Amino acid sequence: MARGGSATDAAIAMMLALAVLEPQSTGLGGGGFLLLGSAEGEVELLDGRETAPAAASGNWFLNEDGSPRDRNAAVLSGLSIGVPGQIALAAEAHARHGLLPWADLFAPAIALARDGFPVTPRLSGSLASFPQRGARDPAGEAQFYGEDGEAPAPGEVVQLPDLAATLEMIATEGPESFYSGPFAESMALKIALDTPSMAAMTVDDFQNYRAVVREPICTIYRLHRVCTVGPPSSGGYAVLAILNQVEAFDLASMGLQNAETWHVFAEAQRLAFADREFFIGDPAYVEVPLVGLLDEDYLAGRAALIEPDRTLQQVDHGDPAGASVALAPGDGWPEQGTTHFVAVDGEGNMASFTATVEGAFGSGLVHGGFYLNNELTDFDFTPEVDGLPVANRVEGGKRPASSMTPTVVYDPEGQPLFTVGAAGGGLIPAQTARALIGVIDFGLPLEEALELPFVMGVGPGALLVEQGTWMEDLGPAFEALGHPRIIPFGQLLRTTGALRGVGGWHARHDPRLDELVRIPGTVGEGAAVEAGFDEGDTLTP
Q: Among candidates 253, 249, 285, 252, which has minimal Cα distance to 267?
């Protein structure tokens, strides 16, 4: 941005740099969503979600007897790999809003990969924790592991020449070099050879891939305009549904460290999740009743189900206008790895980018120096129940549902105020909504909003609460509200944002990340920040 680049340029450059530095969470072999909010209030969504091979069908994750395949075996195979969307997304975003030359955005990432970078404690720990993925492919093992099979220590410098060569190819030859020609042909063949199915990936799947420009979904929450991602991600809907439901309660008067405040929040999550898991899938394949789901009266009716003094024993999906009666409930999708980063330029244009390869190091398969995703395991493995289709079943060319939730907020005067998002699969909507409530309801400064303790409703009477925080101290009060199962939760959280306040914009990654992203022997932080996640992360480094 100091060179005249846009917030979009900065977001793309960060995505590429993180493809080098954070292979456990993101990379060229994955995809994501980029939400852009202009200083004038125009909001645009770019969908770079991965797609299933054209020949895939509902039995993709079924054994010959019709039972679901073992999930871990599916992850560690070509069955889990979708056509990566990251480069197509970047190219579409750059064509629409880029100011610097395409190749310039690749230069920092190329230098990092070619010259080497010191390994963070997070990457070191992820490589040590997940060798079944990180070292599944001999190419991945050669890049990161020593002759003794040991992961690099924090601070050790690692060079990735194969990845540098791939980045240089895309920078000089353009994004088409990734999706067609010899590079795409060899990538599709490698995936097909790793896939126990006749309906495997082909080079045509790569050549036919397109990033999609979509309309964001927005709501007004306490006079603030909140915009986020719509289907095929279900995370954005969950956030807006949570906000619209809790708006019926005066959270500020109830108090920040009050069990009833977060009880209401958790109940709203449960109601929102019941709807998202039943109704939401790729809108090109499923008739998503989004207008009905976001209808003010419908959400008011859902909010009326919340009792401030006791928990709901049973939560079912609702019946919004336009809903199909011919759907079956899905299994949900146990997403894991992801990264989120934000950029805001001097005019107030906001970029909120969530990128992912799904689990730590994706499928473990490596091509061109990068790990290929395991995003297709975000589909429901069971395609139908009692003869009724599941919205998030596998279909050829389809994009799996997601929890990714890049978000932008405008203040009551219509000025850019806040851009935020999170990483961590199914934890993303709760993290994002919690930060929004911290800023809008309680007026917290950015760091305090990001480090609010986590709480999530996960079933009748069950609450996940962040261990070692005042949220865990509220356990007896939660029990009095009908939550007998208070589950201390130690998984590392990953919320990242930029907030306009006194003196201008402030950017911060989740304070919980500080010790895990700081390179040994270095200090300081940038104004454009990121936060990644993998399922090996815990609150105790």
A: 249
If one counts every other C-beta atom within 10 angstroms of the C-beta of residue 142, the result is: 11
Question: HEC string of 119-146?
Answer: CCHHHHHHHHHCHHHHCCCHHHHHHHCC
Strand, coil or helix: 331: coil
Q: Compute the distance between CA of residue 209 and CA of residue 215 in angstroms, rounded to an integer.
A: 19
- pLDDT score at 332: 54
Tell me the percentage of the chain whose pLDDT exceeds 70.
93
For CATH 1.10.246.130, the residue range(s) in the chain are: 215-309+402-533
The CB-side HSE value for 27 (13 A sphere, CA atoms) comes to 33
Q: Bridge partners of 488?
A: 465
Average pLDDT of span 280-304 = 94
Tokens of 432: 């994002």
Take residue 528 and report the two structure tokens written for it: 């454009």
Do residues 24 and 120 touch, judged by C-beta distance below 8 A? no
Adjacent-strand bridge partners of 422: 495
Closest by CA to 352, choosing from 273, 268, 409, 269, is: 409
d(CA 19, CA 381) in angstroms, rounded, equals 29
Half-sphere exposure of 441 (CA within 13 A, CB side): 26
Residue 390's closest CA among 334, 323, 326?
A: 326
Residue pointed to by tokens 């980018």: 353
**How many other β-carbons are positioned within 10 Å of the β-carbon of residue 283?**
15
Mean pLDDT, range 10-25, rounded to an integer: 96
Structural contact between residues 80 and 375, judged by C-beta atoms closer than 8 angstroms: yes
Contacts of 91 (CB under 8 A, 6+ apart): 102, 174, 175, 211
- Find out if CATH 3.30.70.20 is the number for domain 215-309+402-533: no
Whole-angstrom CA distances from 58 to 99, 195, 371, 394 are 43, 16, 26, 5
Residue range 449-497, pLDDT digits in tens: 999 999 999 877 789 999 999 999 999 999 999 998 999 988 778 899 9
Residue 344: strand, helix, or coil: strand
Catalytic one of 8, 120, 195, 338: 338
Exposure of 127 by Cβ count < 10 A (0-12 exposed, 13-18 middle, 19+ buried)? Answer: buried
What's the predicted TM-score (pTM) here? 0.93
338 as an active site residue: the answer is yes
pLDDT of residue 323 exceeding 90, the answer is no
